[in-house]
Write a structure and sequence with these properties.
Layout lengths: L9 H13 L1 H9 L1 H4 E3 L13 E3 L13 H9 L10 H11 L8 H5 L17 H4 L8 H7 L4 H11 L3 H13 L6 H15 L2 E2 L2 E5 L4 H9 L8 H6 L3 H11 L11 H12 L8 H18 L5 H10 L18 H15 L1 H7 L1 E3 L6 E3 L2 H6 L2 H10 L4 H16 L14
Length: 424
């Protein structure tokens, strides 16, 4: 217990120890053949949001009867091997079911979530092993995490980078951040929020081309949960000064403008606008301005156009477009015009990047087509053609024009051998 006491959920630890002492053969079988008796929610489509949570495996979906579990069926046949009597099978099932619920049982998981260290429950696949081997090898220790939260922010960032080198540890980190207690002062609160934001700008270890995401719901509750917290963040850490909190929230969007990326923060703003009432510390209109300003800030810092900046524009401009009956047509309006005009300036110095971005491939075996972003940014293909004509001496422009003309003539995606352009 001493080896893992800060990294377990105590009720589960007690239950699994009871299983080990009372029915040791069942305990061992549960550990060594976990997939036979337990399952994750990926097997139950309606519970996809519980991916990674372990449940007792059922013979058939929708039936909570313990006698319909794979464990019951196995024990009925092999109870002699487990050194238990036929009469004890039900006791084993009740004990195991008290730890691992059926996917169709309600209330058990929610009850756990009200208690200390619930996020370290054995039912989280990432915590399962430690309840049997009493080891944290390759995992993130809770004490180490809590100690790091007390460090200066620059030191905490280094710890986040260190933890992000392993898939298992980075997964642990996200779980611990989601369940971190809101601190007692504004400095600690802001440091926790900034650590979450920093992580979302780092690549996933097993997929370096993709950055981490984070739970929108959890982030919202940490920032502004006026329903569950008796005293919300603004009252608790900012003395009720809403503008101080707003200044902090705004600053998050400009901390890493130099990276020039559409980030979790921007997706968070979109979700607030689309799915939440207009009662956050910032209105929906102010959130739109924040997205626009953060894009312009990234443009002002950038030394040239990047695919990340084009994707940023791709996502952001949809907040600032005219309504059109054709869903695929984007016509910038209002602040979107300002964004587009500033983007044109940087495209001018990095035209080849834009040309690469504006060529799409229809699947692995499909042909190439013009993406249509020239119409969004320049208003029409003719206006963009004037830009291309003025730079017709550039080899990459010549190749793009050759491809565009062939595509326009065919009126469908075509095969084309690109020698200079690198399709994004």
């Amino acid at each position: 217990y001493d080896r893992i006491k800060h990294n377990i959920y105590l009720p589960d630890y007690i239950s699994i120890c009871l299983l080990r002492l009372k029915y040791p053969a069942v305990y061992q079988s549960l550990y060594y053949t976990r997939s036979k008796f337990l399952t994750t929610a990926t097997d139950y489509d309606m519970f996809d949001h519980f991916v990674g949570e372990l449940f007792i495996r059922l013979e058939e979906k929708g039936n909570n009867d313990l006698e319909r579990t794979e464990l019951y069926k196995h024990l009925q046949i092999h109870y002699d091997d487990f050194a238990i009597s036929d009469d004890e099978i039900k006791n084993v099932l009740v004990l195991v079911n008290s730890i691992f619920a059926s996917p169709y049982q309600r209330g058990i998981a929610n009850g756990k979530r009200a208690l200390y260290n619930h996020h370290l429950t054995i039912t989280q696949a990432s915590s399962f092993e430690r309840y049997f081997d009493f080891s944290l090898e390759g995992r993130l220790d809770q004490v180490e995490f809590e100690t790091a939260l007390k460090l200066p922010f620059e030191s905490l960032k280094k710890k986040v980078e260190e933890w992000n080198t392993s898939r298992a540890i980075s997964t642990d980190l996200i779980v611990k951040l989601e369940n971190a207690e809101i601190s007692a002062d504004s400095d600690s609160f802001e440091k926790l929020i900034k650590a979450i934001v920093y992580l979302t700008y780092l690549p996933i270890p097993q997929n370096p081309k993709q950055d981490h995401s984070y739970s929108v719901e959890n982030f919202y509750k940490k920032l502004y949960d006026k329903y569950e917290n008796k005293i919300n963040v603004i009252e608790r850490f900012y003395g009720g000064d809403k503008e101080k909190f707003r200044d902090f929230f705004r600053s998050l969007y400009f901390m890493y403008a130099y990276k020039g990326k559409w980030n979790f923060l921007h997706e968070f703003a979109i979700r607030l606008i689309k799915d939440y009432e207009d009662d956050f510390a910032m209105s929906h209109a102010e959130l739109k301005v924040l997205v626009k300003d953060s894009f312009l800030a990234s443009l002002s810092i950038a030394s040239g156009l990047t695919y990340d900046l084009m994707y940023f524009y791709n996502r952001a401009i949809r907040l600032f477009q005219k309504q059109d009956s054709r869903q695929d047509i984007i016509i910038p309006e209002g602040m979107g015009i300002e964004m587009t005009d500033r983007l044109k300036e940087i495209i001018d110095s990095s035209l080849s990047i834009f040309l690469n971005w504006n060529i799409f491939k229809d699947g692995p075996s499909g042909g190439f087509r013009v993406g249509g972003w020239e119409k969004v940014i320049y208003g029409s293909e003719n206006e963009f053609s004037k830009i291309l004509t003025s730079r017709n001496e550039e080899p990459q422009v010549q190749e793009y024009i050759k491809f565009r003309d062939a595509y326009n003539e065919a009126k469908h995606p075509i095969d084309f051998k690109f020698e200079l352009l690198t399709i994004s």
